[in-house]
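hi support,

uploading two proteins for the ticket. first:
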Amino acid sequence: MQNLQLTHKIELPELPVDTVSVTELPTELPENIGNSVGNSQTLAQSGGNSGNSISSPFAEVCNLLSQLTDSERQKLVEMLTQPKTVEAKKGLRVRYIGTKYAEQLAGLELVVDAISKYKEITCLKPDGSFTTWLNPKDLEVAD
């Protein structure tokens, strides 16, 4: 049996990397002093020094992501979106995700039956009939 690789497609939401930032609480609040019209009352607001900053693994990751260069961001996107591959073998349950035979095979769970020397796959349909030879790139491993 030949070693063929099927693509297990993974969709990831795009990360708004450019807008990710970590906001820390100010260590001191601003002091506002002013006079109201018509009276000599002084208004004042002062704040303490909390010294506590937001610290969590998620906040740290967000902070690090915001510091990546464009090329580092691109490498991260490529790394996170690379599809997993699974070795195609007889009996593997798959779904057709291509377009050529979508009308006939959409929504069906297929079972790999044979792999040709040209790296094409034929599958068994639920009704017991066989598919034509399919391109492995058009198949996705069924969950």
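and the second one:
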Amino acid sequence: MLNNGPLQEDWLLSLKRKAAAVHPPATLKNKVMEHVQMRNTKGEVLATVQIDSFQDDEIMDTIIQDLKPGMGVAVYIAGQGEPFFSQQTNYAAVQWEDGLPSLLQLASPMRLMLPHAELQNIQVFYGFDNLTDEEIAEMAAESEQTGNKVVVRNLVQNQTLVGLSLFYSDQETEFEYRIFRTTKSRIHVPDIEQHVIEHLTIRGNEAVYLADHHRQHLIWAEEDTGIPTPLQYEIICDNQNKRWLLGIAHNLHLLKPTPYSLLDG
């Protein structure tokens, strides 16, 4: 796990200088390409995905682009209308060397659905501590006292497992399989005109398929996870097609923590 050392402190100071340079009013532009709510068969929202592209003249995009892996910030923006508060994170992928059975024990009581494929590599993601109401109020007070319309604060990384990334090989195709406890995500696409967005269903739950000429990305959420909240699943690969990704997603098997090896699926 990354620490919050001098390099991160220098980065945060640089980011604060950028934020302080924003002239009032700081506004949020309506540039969202698509805001997708993925629901279950009952119409309940399980996960949301915001799909857009970066704009260099928007402060939030500037902040997100500057986030290094393992860093997170809280952002308070005062402008026209109600103030805006957001926590933006860039999870760092940490190599997991202890095998899948140990990872399943760490993830317990989560019930994970995994592909029928050859597991090649495992990475995990750790979360950040949320700001308290008192700390958010302090950011609002700082904005009012200094006149800065944008205030940022560092988020502290913790040891809570929030996601994992499993790298598989299926015949001649390699793909990444992600599972996250966080079910609100933001995806940036480099070329809106060349990007395909399709709404699908997986086991009755709504899903979204994103693709360009090179990369394919399937996202959905599942209930019956062993925890009170859904889990978000993702399959990412290059140079494949929608049918192939759906074939992987529709043929997952449920794994529970056990004392024997599950590496062969």
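thanks. also noticed: The longest strand covers residues 157-170.
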